[in-house]
Amino acid sequence: MERRQETDDGFKREEEENNKSCRTEGKKEDKEEEEKEEKKKKKKKKKKKKKKKKKKKKKKKKKKKKKKKKKKKKKKKKKKKKKKKKKKKKKKKKKKIFETSKEKPSPQPSPAYSTPHLTPHPNPLLIPLLPIPTLTPTLSSFPYFSSHPSPPSLSSPPYSTPHPTPHPNPLLTLIPHPQPSPQPSPQSLLPISTLSPTPHPFTLLPISTLTPTPHPFTLLPTTPYPKPP
Known about the structure:
Layout (H helix, E strand, L loop, with lengths): L1 H102 L39 H5 L82
């Protein structure tokens, strides 16, 4: 009886121990499983976070690209508009110039210098080279003589006095022109003693030897000098 009890006790103890070990083992397994699951969860969470971050970055990049493209497009449009405006302005200006040139009357042909230089010459330097028309000075052209009686000296033929009309080139008037010596009549000859002793500043030769040829620079027409009476 005692022996049976002992065995029963042993069995009980053994059973208890087994149960204990089973419990601890189960607990261990549960713990491991829990840890595993937690690890898995953490990993999943991390992955999700990474994915979200990546998506956000991608979205941001896309937005930036879109903005840049939009800006570029706007700039291009503005440039095109400016170019178009400039072209239009240029065209308008050209049209205006053309219209004004069209409105201008065609220049009328001027008379071929019938009167000495009534219209201004296009090139004033060429004036002395143009043929100067021979004009006989009339008393009406001088207001003083038109109201007064004509003096005997002016009634003589044209160019009896040196340059009755203004010289075309004033610089050439400074050069002395040799005067033709009129032959004196035997009655008008006076004795040498009565002649003025001061000679002319330009005449180095006696007046009688001077030739009646005109000066090489005179642009006035050479007309025959009046013969002595």
